[in-house]
Specification:
The chain is an alpha+beta fold and about 140 residues long. It has 5 helices and 3 strands; from the N terminus they run αβαββααα. It has helices spanning about 5-15, 30-40, 70-80, 85-100, 115-125, and strands at about 20-30, 50-55, 65-70. It has a 3-stranded mixed beta sheet, with helices on both faces. Helix 1 (about 5-15) crosses helix 4 (about 85-100), helix 3 crosses helix 4 and helix 4 crosses helix 5. About 30% of the residues are buried. The mean pLDDT is about 90.
Length: about 140
Amino acid sequence: MASSRLADLSRQVLRALRVPRAMLSITFVSPRVMASLNRQHLGHRGPTDVITFALGADPAGGIIGDVYICPDVARRQAVAHGVGVREEIARLVVHGTLHACGWEHPEDDARTTSPMWRRQEQLLKRFWPTSTPRA
């Protein structure tokens, strides 16, 4: 998948959220690296799909953040939910971008019915036209 298309997706989300300035990195990592990040920063075992470090704002009010995505976990999730891998990775880009902008969701089953999840799916459908809703 072209990294430029994913960067464009993140920029479109930022514009839709009316974020005037942002410095956001999106990095793809192995399951081993993701498991290490997950353990060190969140206290959880094993790899996860996406971790975002919202680093606050620059002096001019722009968003600063780092988004880490594990394509191997995304691939497993795509199969489990009956969506394409590219779509699932796009979903994680939107998800990570929302977190960088301060959006949060519950960690339990209410996650997929939360305002953040609904906004994520709206933005994905708008900017990644081939998307299908995922619960």
